[in-house]
Amino acid sequence: MRGDGLLTHDLDPHEKGPQDECGVFGVWAPGEEVSKLAFYGLFALQHRGQESAGIATSDGKRISVYKDLGLVSQVFDEATLNTLTGHIAVGHCRYSTTGGNNWENAQPTLGATAEGTVALGHNGNLVNSAELYRMVQSRYGRQTRGEMAQGNTTDTALVTALLQGEEGSTLEQTATELLPLIRGAFSFVFMNEHTLYAARDPQGVRPLVLGRLERGWVVASEQSALATVGASFIREVAPGELIAIDEEGIRSTRFAESKPAHCVFEYVYLARPDAAISGRSVYESRGAMGRALARENPVEADVVIPVPESGTPAAVGYAEESGIPFGQGFVKNSYVGRTFIQPSQTLRQLGIRLKLNVQPAVVSGKRVVVVDDSIVRGNTQRAVVRMLKEAGAAEVHVRISSPPIKWPCFYGIDFASRAELIANGAGVAEIAASIGADSLAYISAEGMVEATRQPRTSLCTACFTGDYPIPLPTEEERGKDLLEKPVSTPALTPDSTLDPEERPGAVGGDPGPGSSLEDLLTATDRTPL
Length: 529
Description:
alpha+beta, globular, single chain, seven-stranded antiparallel beta sheet
């Protein structure tokens, strides 16, 4: 039976919070049980994606892969892991941003190359998927192959197809040629039969770290995965860097100039509190956000409580700065999402109460400050406020440790559409009234950025500001279901063009199957980066 993949941060089943696309893990370790290392690495990264999980391994001769829908612990058991033998492994846990949540879209993806096979895992989201699709068509024609022929509709499948390369080229050569042509957020971990690779986009939007085992190397989305498998942290994979690891050691290639635009929402919500990004502790960043929130938005109250778990560090910081006592006003049932049994209609109507219960002894008769990391549609906060008042809270003051979310993300977080974002159409006072709070306040963008101790110019804050560091294609060439549209869709046809002002240097013509990737890019009316 496939898992339901419901172990998420979501407290209200009708209120999808921000979702990151996935977690990636790779290991090169001769003599180790690499499938089990990958399993525990993915277990540590489960918060980054709960829809599907997969592991591919290589013994030097062939690549084996197993993947399915559900949580890591639901997809794999001891018997399955024992069949995945070898000295290299690539693992992936997914939340969908391009392509729907179905078995065909689970990762790692597999594809043929000029010299063997490639298995690829991807964290992030590409913004030139339509362009890459046309490149695939120009090279292989309308007759798709590999995972795309089997129904895979992800941007990852496009990259996997293009990694096939030209006859006589190595995977490393093909990757070095292809990576500069990909636009968007990507932390790739991939392998062939002999070598483990890791690559990060020039902006470094999503995290990717390198670690050392006693007898090998590990790459992973976050340091927590390194610690879980006993690897020591070496450094982050640099933006624009391709790393290769094999029996000859580790080598690094720069395929693009580094132009940092790290996702600030990793600090706010997505990464585990024990992660560090660009040398800054995520836990300390969230605590600093809470302290800034208290300085910017004080209120007279009796207790500060978090919405668990992601609101806890900021709530601790708010309590420290304000001098108001900290309390655990909610108890979260972490195991609700692990069941295969779907709740009855009566239980579904309870919504948030399936995962969260109030402690009346902490909040009854008191003025409560409740701290959360973000507001998307407002449904969760509305339910939280109602539960607290039903438990006897005299006042409920909501404090949010990020600014209002007004813009969608195209780099790997699946927010609601812009029309559904409550802050896009309502002011703070209106939102407070809508969720039933006595008051509502957000941290300022300046306070949030300062808490990360990163230069403002090296962060992506697009979901708060609408300032996208990687240029976006036209609306018809983006969207989660882009590759699920019929092939006749204009955005996916080889002769599709954007507005001339948005697509300079257009060149027509079909270069044919023997052409290089750069030729293919030119033929699809794009100027190479």
